[in-house]
Amino acid sequence: MRNHPSYRAFLVHRLSGIALALFLPAHLIVLGLALETAMLDGFLDWAAQPAVKAAETILVILLALHLFGGLRLLAIELLPWSDRQKDWIGWAAAAALAVGAGFVVRSFA
Amino acid sequence: MLKVEIWRGTEEGRYETYEVPSQPSQTVLDLVTFVQRKLDPSLAYRFACRVGVCGSCAMTVNDTPRWTCRTHVQKVVERGRVRIAPLRNLPIVKDLATDMVPFFDKGQEAKGRFIPSDAAATSVAEISPEDPKRKEADAAIECIGCAVCYAACDVVSWRPEYLGPAALNRAWTLVSDARDSDRIGHLQAVADDAGCHACHGHQNCVEHCPVGINPTRSISGLKRLVLMAAVRGRL
Ligand code: SF4
Ligand code: SF4
Ligand code: FES
Questions:
Q1: Which of A38, B1, B28, B120 is 20 to 30 Å apart from B67, CA to CA?
Q2: What percent of chain A has pLDDT over 90?
Q3: Distance, in angstroms, between A12 CA and closest chain B CA?
Q4: Rounded to whole angstroms, what are the CA distances from A59 to A25, A55, A106, B73?
Q5: What CATH number should be reported for the domain holding residue A29?
Q6: HSE, side-chain direction, 13 A CA sphere, residue B147
Q7: Quick one: pLDDT at residue B128?
Q8: C-alpha distance from B220 to closest chain A C-alpha (Å)
Q9: Is there a contact between B161 and B194 (Cβ–Cβ < 8 Å)?
Q10: Which pTM does this prediction carry?
Q11: B19-76 per-position pLDDT tens digit
């Protein structure tokens, strides 16, 4: 019954939202603590650890998924109906992955 | 032989398994009718037209809401088995028959009825079939009231007061009807928390409507009109 793209888009949007609500405060606290305890150089070293970068990459992808998913919903609700709205799911996912890939390239290269 | 599992009871109950001979072009409704006529006359279910017009035969078939008179067994059978239950999101009267009253009541709550103007009409309203608003209404108007979309909608199961796809779709046909005289009244009826804004747009309704109606499209239209009316202070 729920095996179709629009429902999956809804789930991704909902779950990324929940994950962000949990993740973002933790991210900010850790960031704040790291900045407080270490001097900037120390912090930059800390931020360069692969695990931290991986966590940040996940955060960026979640943010991008939620952002583009949200834009898609706004388009469905505010613009006249378009039968191409199914394709927007693909575009939103592709845009989020592109942002994630861009982040990975920038931070690991 | 097909193994047909049918829900027996009310909210409390169990699946009973029946053996029904397989036939070419057999529908799910044929299975149920066979069981009721040949194996257990106490089985309760509902149907009328058998040709996809009346909307009374909807049931849950292998976990998916469907109109059973137009669903071929061949399309849904899984390893020789078909599991048939009453529609989701509605109280069960007995076996496969649900109480449709909450569903039809929501049609009224959504003010899903035509409101004529006060003055008696002196001439026939001329509406071009090419008029864009008429086209919007026409795309949504062939609803047979089967409640398949209502059973498929997760928001209805999460928030039982939600008006649901069919009632909102009906409201949309009326605000899109140039002859209706109470557009703001229709919008008011669907503007609250249980109305169009509760819809998450996940389109289970669209995927399952047997006659190809797109309630999500109608509900998005209502959301826009409600927003515009609110911005203009008319709600
Ligand atoms: S799109 Fe709206 S009405 Fe349709 S199934 Fe989803 S929540 Fe229900
Ligand atoms: S919109 Fe479609 S699924 Fe829903 S009640 Fe009408 S015909 Fe049935
Ligand atoms: S019996 Fe009328 S629609 Fe199926």
A1: B1
A2: 55
A3: 11
A4: 11, 6, 15, 47
A5: 1.20.1300.10
A6: 25
A7: 93
A8: 5
A9: yes
A10: 0.92
A11: 999 999 999 999 999 999 999 999 999 999 999 999 999 999 999 999 999 999 999 9
φ, ψ of residue B40 to 5 degrees: the values are -155, 95
Render pLDDT for B100-149 as a digit per residue (tens, 0 to 9).
999 999 999 999 999 998 787 788 889 999 999 999 999 999 999 999 99
Pocket flag, ligand 1, residue B216 (CB < 6 Å): yes
Give how many domains chain A has, as a whole number. 1
CATH number at residue B25: 3.10.20.30
What's residue A47's pLDDT? 74
Q: What residue ranges of chain A have pLDDT lower than 70?
A: 38-40, 109
- Provide the domain limits for residue B138: 101-231
Question: Looking at the complex, does the CB of residue B204 fall below 8 Å from at least one CB of chain A?
Answer: yes
CATH number of the structural domain spanning residue B189: 1.10.1060.10
In a shared domain, residues B56 and B106: no
Structural domain span for residue A69: 5-107
B65 in reach of chain A (CB within 8 A): yes
Q: How far is CA B49 from CA A26, B46, B98, B202, in A?
A: 59, 10, 18, 31
Same domain, B116 and B226: yes
Q: For ligand 1, say whether the CB of B75 is within 6 Å of any of its atoms.
A: no
Whether B175 and B71 map to the same domain: the answer is: no
